[in-house]
Amino acid sequence: MDILKLAEHWRRAGNDVAVATVIDTWGSAPRPVGSHFVINGDGRFEGSVSGGCVEGEVVTEALDVIRTGQSRVLEFGVADETAWRVGLSCGGRIRILVEPLV
């Protein structure tokens, strides 16, 4: 099933849903711009924005996006403050838009 169709299916079934989309990359990011990752309010997820490097952090942020209804842009890379706790194993940098599906 297409990842965005799955998100819509979850939404129609009464679940709150957030969609994470890769909006920018630099260097050797593992997923291309336009890649999607969907998360429902129960913490279930499908898809990928980084090949497993930052998905856990994106789930945490997505659950907050669902709770607040406020979209946000996340940035991960080897040169920012998150590099010591969450980073891209292949190097590079990635920006991800996380927004509630309404």
UniProtKB/TrEMBL annotation:
Pfam families the record matches: XdhC_CoxI
Residue ranges of the XdhC- CoxI domain? 10-77
Q: Which PANTHER family match?
A: ALDEHYDE OXIDOREDUCTASE MOLYBDENUM COFACTOR ASSEMBLY PROTEIN, MOLYBDENUM COFACTOR INSERTION CHAPERONE PAOD
Q: What's this protein's name?
A: XdhC/CoxI family protein
UniProt organism field: Agaricicola taiwanensis
